[in-house]
Amino acid sequence: MRPPLRGGGGGGRGEGGAWRGRGSDRGRGPGGRRPGGRGPGGRGPGGRGPGGRDPRSKPGGRAKVGLNGGSKVIVEPHRHAGVFIVKGKEEALVTKNLVPGESVYNEKRISVENEDGTKVEYRVWNPFRSKLAAAIFGGIDNNWIKPGAKVLYLGAASGTSVSHVSDIVGPEGCVYAVEFSSRSGRDLVNMASKRTNVVPIIEDARHPSKYRMLVPMVDVIFSDVAQPDQARIMALNASFYLKTGGHFMISIKASCIDSTVAEEAVFANEVKKLQAEGFKPAEQLTLEPFERGHACVVGGYRMPKKQKAT
Amino acid sequence: MLVLFETPAGFALFKVLDEGKLSNVEDLGNLFSSAASARKMVKLQAFDKFDNTSEALEAVAKLLEGAPSKGLRKFLKANCEGEALAVADSKLGNIIKEKLKIDCVHNNAVMELLRGVRSQFTELISGLGDQDLAPMSLGLSHSLARYKLKFSSDKVDTMIIQAIGLLDDLDKELNTYAMRVREWYGWHFPELAKIIQDNILYAKSVKLMGNRINAAKLDFSEILADEVEGELKEAAVISMGTEVSDLDLMHIRELCDQVLSLAEYRAQLYDYLKSRMNTIAPNLTALVGELVGARLISHGGSLLNLAKQPGSTVQILGAEKALFRALKTKHATPKYGLIYHASVVGQAAPKHKGKISRSLAAKAALAIRCDALGDGQDNTMGVENRLKLEARLRNLEGKDLGRLSGSAKGKPKIEVYDKDKKKGSGGLITPAKTYNSAADSLLGQTPKADSAENGVKEKKDKKKKKKADAEEETITEEPSKKKSKKKKTEVEPETEEPAKKEKKKKRKHEEEETEMPAKKKEKKEKKEKKKKKTDV
């Protein structure tokens, strides 16, 4: 599947970063040249657009080739439940909108008529902005985020990916979104007020005991925190909240863990760390061409062994 | 042993039925794999329900700080007699131990136990199904999140950043509209543009007279000075502009209304900004002034971010382009950034601006930290430091005067040799003499409207603005090509941030203009002082 929406994706990413960190970006100029050490549990500096981008430009000025209003498109379900592909002149990954009529981050929405006349709305999922979409595009074997699942999402940022996860899990499932930064947290809470299956948690993911009264046992943990100790963070959260036989998906940014070592070495190290904590990594895939230096590891937790119980 | 388990509905106390199994931590997980075996392990002893969301929020908020709320304390006292209590948070455990004398346990076994309870607790607590719990959890999380966010936004420096951004926007808009008024009305009465330099006065006059024919009859004494009024009336008679209809005049008048209301709003906004700055960062305001303080905060992103920067960064905030260019090409780095516009730096002689800017930046960094992280809400620290800075400035100038009047040991200072540093003529004791436009005669301009007109002139003419800089400081650091590169980098930051931040340009000028008459007086005083000293 060739990756669509390149131009839109790049512009979207720059705008996302600029929109989010409009004031704080400039402060990094002379003093703050620390690599990647942002607020704990918050999203890493992946979305920081290059300096030339004017932060005052209106968001949403993207030219989408082919998915213009009025063109005929076909929507077919993806191999993974809850995700769909829309085929027209260009292909795109979409999820069914839980709140029809509203865009969360000015993404494109596609309305399709069913055979019985009802309209279904889908929202386009940008793989350049969302690590999960990039992983699905990249072709992971098993997507454990399926309708009806309970998901703990670490590193929720402003809730753009979380909204898609919420679309996938549907009204029976639940997404517990953890984000430490107040500015992003505000946007997350706003998004969550429209979607009742998202529980916003403005806490440091390093201390899962701080949100123990809000989260029950979950089926999947998705982690996109971009911190050097993310394996430990994930392990801690899993020991609290991930059910036995549950699954995890973690997005590893090589330059965030150790920028001096080769990528493959970093990923191998992280996988080893995860294995030591009781995780069973099942697959690892790189997120090229959407993100550079990123890999996504998927696997199980405390999986029951065939012979004896763990 | 009892286990304390917090849920969005309330606190639950479970009794561990089989304590022996706790020693085998790994198998503990299995014991909770089904509801039946879970029930064999633990039993619900007591449940303390939250009455409503606000009670839940309170209890949980206190829990997060590590302290048990009253409800929890009562609950525990009532039910935990003589038993050890397993808790999820060791800090909480310690406090419970202190206050309620209940032994608390927190170890791996406890964590596994809690995990097991959590996976089965809908079964263990009858009457609390999944469906009930979900909305409660949602409600609690929203209230908690809102509580957290509101808490952190107590001292909102976001207001400052937005206000200063709006101020710059307003200035730009105001200028655009005012220019438009001039251009539009200039069709009808071109001479007026040259007669009245100030935008607001222009708009007021246009609003008052409408068609230039009315100029003779009307009285402009509230708006304009007498000479200007006279000129206006003369020009109105002999004007060469075209006639315009009433409908057009109505629209021009509406535009003037817009200009005037924007100007009024801008004044209000400035007052608002001043009051906000005094509330949020009183020490910084005392040191550098409201406008420079607000710009620093806006540049740093937030007060807290700014507090993390060292004094040297505060010194050159705003001159990043010049800084990195100088670093890359191994030239001298800029000496000041935004801080150049502080009044203390403006008062200093050009030679001492660098030193004062450094001292000011150091004190400013301290003031920012006081404001961002300290408890006190007063500006004593800022005021004290300002006095110190002014004393230092006087000291510097005193030393300078001493040197000028001659001393016995008049040896030139030997500089440290740095092969990489590009040198020119180094630090000149006196700047080279160039054309001093301050000595120009200003014929045809009335003294009252002088400062305002000067300000407006510079607004219109970018080149003249540079000279205005020079006028104020009485150095003309106009880069003459023969001058050393070092001098250029000094000029660059001044002209850099004016050039870089075009929106702020005009604001800077208004501010400089208000300081200019005061500064001019000071300069005169200083010159007299110097004269006196050299005489003696």
From TrEMBL, chain B:
GO molecular function: snoRNA binding
Biased composition (Basic residues): 520-536
Listed Basic and acidic residues bias regions: 412-423
One Pfam short name: NOP5NT
UniProtKB keywords: Nucleus, Ribosome biogenesis
Record-level GO cellular component terms: box C/D methylation guide snoRNP complex; small-subunit processome
Domain Nop per the UniProt entry, residue ranges: 280-398
PANTHER family per UniProt: NUCLEOLAR PROTEIN 5 NUCLEOLAR PROTEIN NOP5 NOP58, NUCLEOLAR PROTEIN 58
Protein name as catalogued: Nop domain-containing protein
Organism, as annotated: Eutrema salsugineum
Lineage: Eukaryota, Viridiplantae, Streptophyta, Embryophyta, Tracheophyta
